[in-house]
Amino acid sequence: MASLIKKKVGRKYYYYIVESKRINGRPRIVHQVYLGSVENILKKFQEGGVSAGPQGSRKTKVEKEEFEVTEKKREP
Predict the structure, then answer these.
(1) How confident is the model at residue 63 (pLDDT cuts 50, 70, 90)?
(2) Would you list the domain boundaries of the chain?
(3) Where is the segment annotated Disordered (predicted)?
């Protein structure tokens, strides 16, 4: 299951999309994509880098090139 999480580093918050799976009965992050700070994400929306889905749905189309993507895979 994918979800959006925030991590605090110093005084700032940074956002990630993470995919979690149960490994040995416990939830673990198996895939993580860095999105950046709120300012970075808002900047991408304002520049038109992220568009809404059909009929104004809440789903968004995000392409990998739109963000500085840092992927981190964890092996069980």
Answers:
(1) very low
(2) 2-73
(3) 49-76
